[in-house]
Design brief:
- By secondary structure, the chain is an alpha+beta fold.
- The protein has one domain.
- A four-stranded antiparallel sheet has the order 2-1-3-4.
- Strand 3 and strand 4 form a beta hairpin.
- Helix 3 packs across helix 6 and helix 5 packs antiparallel against helix 6.
Length: about 130
Amino acid sequence: MHRPRRHPLIALSTVLALCAGAPAWAQQDPHTPREIAHLLDFVAQSGCQFERNGSWHDSKAAREHLQEKYDYLQRRKLVPSTRAFIERAASQSSWSGKPYQVRCGSEQPITSAQWLNAELERYRAGTR
């Protein structure tokens, strides 16, 4: 079977284009670590239940899980902002792709993305 030959300049330009964006990923907003620490503490202290992949977990286990995901992404410089943390670590299972749910007391569950984004807005409004 004959495979078409790829032009080396096209491959090189693709690699260079991908690398050009890498420094932007690595630059973190200076408020991000403090905001994420707040969100992780908020999760732990909420007393809410967190569902991931069909199982419900208490708030302390949820915080530990999110901390592990955050640490993993931090080592790869993939958390340039708090919104990126919520999107990449705290919204859905990286294993199944299913959204995380949060249930506080007798309230209906909502997605963790909604819940955490709302808390981030409250936090930012209070620190300005």
